[in-house]
Structures are given as C-alpha cells and as structure tokens.
C-alpha cells in the first residue's frame, strides 16, 4: 500500500489536493482541492446522491444553511458536550488530544519534548461566529459541526411537501466545521470538510431492521465505487464507545496507510434528536400515521460519511506502481465512473491540433474529456496515468487518411485502432463493462 508521503506528493503534483493558503505558509487543518481533486470529489458526491436519492423513491434531498439558529446546537447537545479533552505542553507549548496520544506516550509528559503536560481541559469543537453588526453574545452563532441537525429541524416541512409516509429518508451533502485539536493524516481529519448524511425516519419497532439494511447498503456503495473489498470492513461499536444519542452504531472502515480508519458511521439515533428539538422549540414534530392510527416521534437511522475521507480512501486504493521496461509507472486505477478525466484526446503533433480539438469537442457531450497537447506523447500518457484517465485517444498523421484513432487503455496500456465513427460506441461499451 502507498505511504502517505508519496500520496500527498502525487496529490500536489497532479492537482488533487493543495495545502490551503500555501503562499502564506498554509493553515493547519485546511485543504484545497485542485482541478483533478475537485472533479474526483464531485463524482463521489454525484455517485452518493444518485444511489441515495435519485434511484429511490423513499429518500428526498435538501440543502440547508451552514449557520442555523444557535438554539439548534443547544438542543442537539453540541453546546454542552461536543468536547474533546485537551492538554498543553508547558515546555514547547504544543497541544494534544488527551484521549488520542501518540504510541509510546508516557503519562503526563509531552510526546514531542518530554516536558510536563497540563491537566486535561474540555475543549468545544464548534467554530463560533457572530451574525450581524454587533459582536456581542446575543449575536453568537456556530458553524455547523454536522449537516444532519437541519434535517431534524426541517423534518415537518420536508415531510409535508414531499408527502412521504414512514419509512422515508432526508439526505443532504454539505460543509461541516470542527475545530479539531489535532487535525492530521492529510484530508482524513481536517477542520473544514464535507459530509453526506441521510436520516431515515421509521417506526421504533422497525428501526433494527432498517439499521441492518442501511449497514449493508452503505457497505455495498463503497464496493460499487471501486474500493477493493479486502480494504473494507464493518466494525460494530462496543456499548462503551456509543455516542450519547445512539442505540447502536456500525462503522465502515478502510485500511488506510495509517491503519484501519472510520469512513462512515451508520447509527440508530432513536427519537433523541426530534424529541430534543420539540422540547427546545416548543413545536410539535411528531408524525401521524394514518394506517396505524397513531401519532409517533419517529426513530432515525443515520448514515453519515465524509466526502474528503472517502476521497482519501479512493486515492489510496487507486494508487499503484508498476515496472515497465525498467521504469516505474505510477497509475491511479480509479473506477472509470470516478476518474477526474474520463477520456484524454492527444494530437501526436501540433499540426493536428485542429482535428484533435474537434474530436474532443464532439466527445465532451458524452464524457468528461480533456484536450492535451502539452509535452511529448510519453509525458502526456504519464500524466494521464497519474490522474487516472481510463482512455487516451491519439490523433496521428494516419488519422486523416484512415479516419481512425488509437485508443490506449490505462490499465493494460494496450492500444487499439478504432474508426472515428465507431469511437463513441466503443467507449460507451468499455465504460458500461467497467
Ligand atoms: N452526524 C453524525 C456525525 O457527524 P461523526 O462520526 O462525527 O458523526 C461522520 O462524523 C463522518 O464525518 C465521519 O465518519 C467522517 O467520515 C466525517 N468526519 C468527521 N469528522 C471529520 C473531520 N474532522 N475531517 C474529515 N472528515 C470528518
């Protein structure tokens, strides 16, 4: 498996991920996605949305604000208890999470310089801001630390307009912010990230059945986007590690270069959130079931996955090195549906620019394509291997006469001569078979 240093370097070299504000020395825990990375993230989100919302008639989507009424976070428990224990080094002034110290840590001693550590203090992970012109406590607001709370606060509105009956789900993709004490492992744990969350509302007596269903469904999604099954596992939480709101939780974990790590949590949140928001707001969020002839506060099965973490798993999983005639070839073997560029069009010479560009414009309507005439053909192949382009099409001097192009397969490196009028069907077929 690739080591993190190699992966981070490739991500920068090929435009997947850059350090945020790099020209100012960076800002810890914040990352920017470059041209290849933002396409990859977009495809991950599209795949999730298609499977979770568009292909189902029991889940609808919403898109809510990052800043919500501050009462939201009192009701959810975040103001009081979204804390991590923090310790400071009295010598080098570094800061650590007391419950997540590095291996070999000696109690009370700084793992970096050996000086004494302070007692642990509770540190709230929510970023604060102020709404409006005054910066007093009345204007205090929070950047959401998870996207799901507005799904609960909008439950009645969404249920009403969508006319859905239990069981049904509400899904959302959006930014979340956590002032992590120790952001680390590249984009795995950052301070600004994106979540894809779905809250599935159901009757309490059916919640265990739905919990099992969503665990399996979510595990299958990771396989469907091409993550190798041997790098994936399900890990049910022990009673002691369950979040205060959860009756049960199972994580999907991926074997990262730094060990097995949580990608997604699938939790039975019971009626905890709706009850809390009913109590704090004084509004009735209960649901009337006209078949059972009863009013209920639904139970909720939550599926919650990070876009950035999924992108990191996909990147680590796709990376491979091969020896080709004594030289190392680096290939990102993404599933074709996730590849940032699906088809590269490369003229063999600049003299063929016009014809190759025309071909690329024709392909654009069907695939995410890129015209690339920079550097030697060998260098262009290498670049496309490293951004994971499944097919490169070379327009050469014979193309004028035989109306055909050479299609190179990223994985096998085999080249096939394909008539231009058959190219679209050929590529469609190859993508369908992937
Ligand atoms: N609504 C439930 C919830 O937010 P969580 O386990 O705290 O649960 C869910 O977060 C997912 O969000 C995680 O499995 C992970 O993929 C992603 N995530 C959480 N904190 C993150 C961070 N600091 N950086 C990147 N992704 C994060």
Strands, helices and their partners?
Layout: H1 4-13, E1 17-19, E2 31-33, H2 35-54, E3 59-61, H3 71-75, H4 78-81, E4 83-88, E5 95-97, E6 121-124, E7 128-130, E8 140-142, H5 149-153, H6 155-162, E9 168-177, E10 192-202, H7 207-224, E11 232-236, E12 248-256, E13 259-270, H8 272-281, E14 287-289, E15 294-296, E16 299-306, H9 307-318, E17 319-324, E18 327-332, E19 343-347, H10 353-364, E20 369-371, H11 377-387, E21 391-395, H12 399-402, E22 404-409, E23 415-419, H13 420-433
Parallel strand pairs: 3-9, 19-20, 19-21
Antiparallel strand pairs: 1-2, 4-5, 4-6, 7-8, 9-10, 10-16, 11-12, 12-13, 13-16, 14-15, 17-18, 21-22, 22-23
Helix pairs in contact: 2-9
The structure holds glycyl-adenosine-5'-phosphate.
How would you describe what is shown here?
The structure is a single chain. A hairpin with a 6-residue loop joins strand 4 (83-88) and strand 5. The chain has helices at residues 4-13, 35-54, 71-75, 78-81, 149-153, 155-162, 207-224, 272-281, 307-318, 353-364, 377-387, 399-402, 420-433, and strands spanning 17-19, 31-33, 59-61, 83-88, 95-97, 121-124, 128-130, 140-142, 168-177, 192-202, 232-236, 248-256, 259-270, 287-289, 294-296, 299-306, 319-324, 327-332, 343-347, 369-371, 391-395, 404-409, 415-419. It is globular and about 75 Å long. The chain contains 13 helices and 23 strands. It is 31% helix and 29% strand. Helix 2 packs across helix 9. The strands form 7 sheets. A 7-stranded mixed sheet has the order 3-9-10-16-13-12-11, with helices on both faces. It has 434 residues and is of the alpha+beta class. The site of glycyl-adenosine-5'-phosphate (GAP) has 19 residues, from strand 10, strand 13, strand 16 and helix 9.
